[in-house]
Amino acid sequence: MTRRISDEGLALIKRWEGCRLTAYRDVAGVLTIGYGSTGAHVRPGMKITQAEADQLLVKDLARFERAVETLVKVPLNEGQFAALVSFAFNVGEGAFAKSTLLKRLNAGNYAAVPRELMKWVNAGGKKVEGLVNRRAAEGGLWARGSHVSSNTVEAKPAKPPVVTVDNVVKVATPLSALLQAFTSGPAQIVLAVAFALGGAFLLWRWHRSQQEAAA
Predict the structure, then answer these.
(1) Coil vs helix vs strand at 122
(2) What is the mean pLDDT of residues 130-150?
(3) Cα radius of gyration (the chain)
(4) What is the pLDDT of residues 181-202, one digit of tens each?
(5) H-type helices in the chain, by residue range?
(6) d(CA 22, CA 39)
(7) Deepest of 32, 63, 137, 189, by most Cβ within 10 A of its Cβ?
(8) At a CB cut-off of 8 Å and minimum separation 6, what does 159 contact?
(9) Model-level pTM?
(10) DSSP letters of 162-209?
(11) Across the strands, what pairs with 22?
(12) So what's the pLDDT on residue 179?
C-alpha cells in the first residue's frame, strides 16, 4: 500500500496551491484547476465544485506519493515525506527524479534538503516570492522532528533529563540516613529537605557540565 501524506502536509499543499474552481493559467502558463491540478483533463473555461476539487487533489497526490516512496532510498519521517510530496507535486515527478536534492538525500545527506529546496524558487525564468515562501514552509516541515545525522554528521543520543525524581532520591536517601544519626524530630525533616535540595542542585550542575562537554 502506498504511503499517504499527513494531514499537516495536505494542509500545506492546499494553503500554497490555493483552490480555484474555474480553469486558469498559472505563473508558468500551464492550464490549471482546483489545487494545482494540471493535465489533459483540464480544459479552458472548465468549472468544478469544491468537493470535486478535493477529490481531484487526493487523486493527483497519489502519483506523487508513489514517486517519493519509490525514488527516495533512505528512511523518512512523516514530516520529511510530506515535504517531499509537496515539493514533487509542485515541480513534477521528472524534475524531482533528476534533482540534486534527491541525489544528496539518497547519499544520506538529510541536512542538504532545506538548502536544495530553496534553489527551486523560479517560474518562467523569474524568481517568484510565492515559491520562496512555499519552499520555506516545506523546509520547516522537513526540519520538524527530522534526522540529526547525515553522511558527515553522526547522530547523537538524546540527552538525559537534568534532574529526575530518581536522581533526587539517590541523593536524598544517604543524606537522610546520615542525619538520623545526629538529629531527631522536626529538625531532622528540615535538614533532610535542605540537604536534598542542595544535592539536587549539585546534581543539576554536574549534568549541565556533562552536556556542555558533549556538545
Answers:
(1) strand
(2) 80
(3) 27
(4) 555 555 555 555 565 566 566 6
(5) 7-17, 50-71, 78-91, 93-98, 100-106, 113-117, 129-143, 165-180, 186-214
(6) 14
(7) 32
(8) 211, 214
(9) 0.63
(10) SS-HHHHHHHHHHHHHHHHTT--THHHHHHHHHHHHHHHHHHHHHHHH
(11) 47
(12) 45
DSSP three-state, residue 212: helix
Query: CA 186 to CA 32: how far, in whole Å?
Result: 79
Taken as a whole, the chain contains a residue count of: 215
37 forms beta bridges with 33
* Most confident among 14-18, 97-101, 152-156 (mean pLDDT): 97-101
Contact 90, 36 (CB under 8 A): yes
**Residue 35 burial (CB < 10 Å; 0-12/13-18/19+)?**
buried
Place of cell 553522511: 151
Active site residue 17: yes
pLDDT digits (tens, 9 = 90+) for 157-172: 334 444 443 444 444 4
Q: If you search the block for the grid coordinates 486558469, which residue do you land on? A: 24
Task: Tell me the three cell numbers of residue 132.
Answer: 520562496
Question: Of 8, 17, 69, 129, which residue is the catalytic one?
Answer: 17
**3-class state of residue 132 by DSSP:** helix
Per-residue model confidence (pLDDT) at position 124: 79
Helix, strand or coil for residue 126?
strand
Closest Cα to residue 77, out of 138, 141, 16, 14? 141
**Three cell numbers written together for 148:** 540529526
